[in-house]
Each structure stands twice: as structure tokens, then as C-alpha cells.
Amino acid sequence: MLANWPNAIALIDADYFFAHCELARHPEHRGKPLMVLGRLGSCILAKSPEAKALGIGTAMPFWEAKKLCPKGIYLQGDFRYYTLMSRRLMAVLRQWSPVVEECSIDEAFMDMGGLCDLYRLPFEAIAQKIQSEVKTALGITVSFGISVNKTLAKIACEIRKPNGVMAVPGIGIESFLATLPVGEIPGIGFNREALLQKWGIKTGLQFAHMPHDRVNRLLGQTGLQLWREMRGEVAFPLQSAAVPPKSIGRTSSFDKPTSNLDWVRGLAVYHLERALESLCDHELFAGELTLYLRDKEFKTYGFGHRFERPTSDFNEWIVAFQKLFLQIPSNHVWRSAGAFLTRLTPANGQQLDLFSDPQKSVQSDRLNQAKQKLNERFGRTTVRSGATLYFNSKCVSKNRMQMPIQ
Ligand SMILES: [Mg+2]
At 394, is the pLDDT very low, low, confident or very high (cuts 50, 70, 90)? Predict the structure, then answer.
């Protein structure tokens, strides 16, 4: 039999994260249906519980939501703010455990091993203390699932949302899984569930009791990993060190396909600036730029430039970008554009090459840092490339909605 807590892994997931972040700074909207709109304002990205109760769903078009809920509060998503709130959330979690793995903007796994001895409290009580600390620091609620591995912790968390805590020790796994529909196991999608049902497997417990070879034959390696986790083993270890990205890309579509190259350039440069911002946030340099375009017929084009040495200097990137832009075929109607940065390396430990002017490099660094600081303080596009002005004023911004939209 499995020991009660061979490991103690928690999944902490913020409830209605984007909507609750907005309510934290707009308390006057509490209790009202509130919707957060995506970047271009065309669909619902997140909603408050009150909006959910009215039948508003994620990814619902704005016009449909407006019909269902004409008096709701509609706010445009503010991802810089949500990212800051996410960082504060993770900082609170790290005060409780040194091993925290961020898995999305509002979700993290935490190793709670040893915390009971340290605080002389059961896991549920520790989770409640962390919940109230998050509530005080950020004004939002989080749910906790605690078990012996990641998958069981995730299922437990899902069951007790919102603002709940559920702990499933080793000894409790079988009874926990006995009533769990097999399709509720993350990773068992609709197709896998249908396949398992054919073999009479309806609950998590029946799945955990399947013979190894049958799981392997039906569901392969991924299925076997989930099967092991349902049996209380660890198939997905915790990774506390953040895995650096291999590439950074930003793209989006025009409201209507266009042949206006000023707009296309504007949108692509806007995304290049966003990608470079993310590059700096990760403290990385990149050595390759790909200008990405998609035409009206959904044909994709990529134009690449490789730098002699990796950099994050916008001045170097914009020169490379302009050269790439000259290569794009004429007489095309474009539907989306963007930029991808690849060949990423850590920003520290970079050597200046023999022929570069160190004075120029320092000046450029200072300029970039000043730009970043102003944008952090006054909003992300306060200081931006002149090439994006046309894009902002004419092609998309007129369709963007101001906040709040009543
Ligand atoms: Mg969440």
C-alpha cells in the first residue's frame, strides 16, 4: 500500500484570474457580470462568475455576449497588469516553498514536502493560510489541490474550485478515483475516453486497475504516464527551474485582409517590439529574425535573417527587419503578420565582437532601457517605433474598444 504522503505536491490555480485581477483594481464592479476582451476586442477571454451564470462562455464573440448581457462591464484585456499580478502571486508562493513550478500565468505546482513539520499544521491548514495571504496581497482567490503527484493534485484542485482546498493522501486515492469519470483525468481527451469506454473503463479507478500492457497498447506512452500517476507514482516530476523558451513569436490578424503595406509593416513591427520586450523579460538575446506573413488564401511566408552575434538591440533588429520587408512579394492581400525570434541565448556572458564600438553599444543599451522603463510606467506602447504609428491609427486601433465598454 502507498504511504500517505511519499510526496506532497500542490497545484495552486487562481480562480477567474483575469476577471478577478480587474475586480481587484475596480472594486466598484464587484458582484456585476464582468467580461475581459481579447487584444482586438472581438471575443470574450475571461469572465466573472456572475457573467458565467448568465451563460457567457470563454471565446464567445463580443456581439453574442452583448446580446446576452447588454448591461455587463466589458473591459479590454491588460496583459502587462496580469503579468505583474502573476509575478506577485508566484512571489507569495515562493515564500512558502523553495520549489515552485510555474505552469501558466495563474497556475503553479508547489512541493509542500516537509511543510507540515515546519509549521506543525496539516496540509489543508497550510493551504488556507496561503490562500488568505494571496487574498490580502492581491485581492484574488486561489484553489488548492494537494496529492502525491501532479495529475492527482490537478484533479483535486479542479473539483474544489473556486476558493477551495482538497487534499488526497496516498491512502485516499482509490476512493477518490472510484467516483471520478475517466474523462476528467487531464490528458484523457474525448477520443481516449471513448476508446476506454469500449473496454468498459468508466472511472479513474477502473483505469488505474487496467493491466500495464493493455494501457500501452491502447494509449501508448502518454497513457502509461497518466496510468502511473493514477496509481500514485510520479511520472511527471516537478521542475522548479524555469525552462527558457526556444523561440519567441508574436503574430495577429487584420480585421480584414489588406494589401496596404504600411499597415502590414506597422503590424509586423508592433509584434517585433512585443517579441523583443519578452526577450528582455527573459534576459535573453536572439540571433535570428523571421518575418512571418500569411496571405488571403492562408499561404504562409517566412523571411529570415541571421545576425553575426545574438542581440536584443532594437536598432539592429529594425535594420534587419526593413531589409526583410523589401523581399515580400507585391500585389498580395495579407491577413496576418508577425515576428519570430530564434537562436536564443542568455543575455549575460555575451562577448562584444572585436569590431563593434563599445561606446555605441552602451548608448543603445541605455536607450532601450529608458524606453522599457517608460513603457512599464506609462503603458506598453508609450514609446514605440515610428513604423507602428500607421498600424495603430488606421488599421486596427479604430476597431479596438476603449475601456470600460458599457
Ligand atoms: Mg485559473
Answer: very low
CATH of the domain at 87: 3.30.70.270
Whole-number Å distance, alpha carbon 141 to ligand 1 midpoint, is: 10
Q: Does this model's pTM top 0.90?
A: no
Q: Is residue 228 part of a domain?
A: yes
How is residue 400 written as a grid cell? 479596438
Around ion ligand 1, which residues have CB less than 5 A away? 13-14, 17, 106
Under 8 Å CB-to-CB from 380, ≥6 apart: which residues?
Answer: 80, 274, 277
pLDDT tens column, 140-178? 999 999 999 999 999 999 999 999 999 999 999 999 999
Question: For strand 34-37 and strand 73-76, is the pairing parallel, antiparallel, or unpaired?
Answer: parallel
What is the extent of the structural domain holding 368? Answer: 248-399
Residue 215, CA distances (Å) to 44, 201, 204, 340 in order:
38, 11, 13, 39
Place of cell 503578420: 337
| Distance from the alpha carbon of residue 15 to the mean position of ligand 1, in angstroms | 5
